[in-house]
Specification:
119 residues, alpha+beta, 3-stranded antiparallel beta sheet, two-stranded antiparallel sheet, 5 helices, 16% strand
């Protein structure tokens, strides 16, 4: 179900699940999951370094792509050329054995993440 927000941002996405009587959570019978479609997420740079030997710059670019930022915006924010960002993305592809941005984002979405505000 969707829960509207007074701020006008997209609604929270809420899912309510019934749990077995003797589930992992003791006596709990219901689990409520709340998703924020406007909340950015990131993969901690130390995880990207450990799993894929990414540099701090590559981790930042990977997380920017995960957040949906266009390459030109990434370059502007990092104060480098678009060409530099493209070279770094190719390095990320090589390290992650991906070939397209969509494959990379899918991979990053499968990794442990935390809300961007917790960085």
């Amino acid at each position: 179900m969707k829960v509207p927000r007074p701020s006008g941002k997209r609604s929270f996405q809420v899912r309510i699940l019934s749990l077995p009587p003797r589930g992992m959570l003791g006596h709990a019978r219901t689990l409520v999951l709340i998703g924020d479609p406007d909340g950015a997420a990131s993969v901690p740079p130390d995880i990207l370094a450990a799993l894929y030997a990414m540099t701090p710059a590559e981790a930042q670019i990977g997380n920017a792509l995960l957040a949906g930022q266009p390459i030109r915006e990434i370059a502007r924010r990092r104060q480098v050329s678009v060409g530099t960002v493209r070279v770094q993305i190719k390095s990320i592809f090589r390290k992650t054995k991906t070939h397209r941005q969509s494959e990379l984002v899918k991979l990053l979405l499968s990794l442990p993440r935390r809300p961007a505000d917790d960085q």
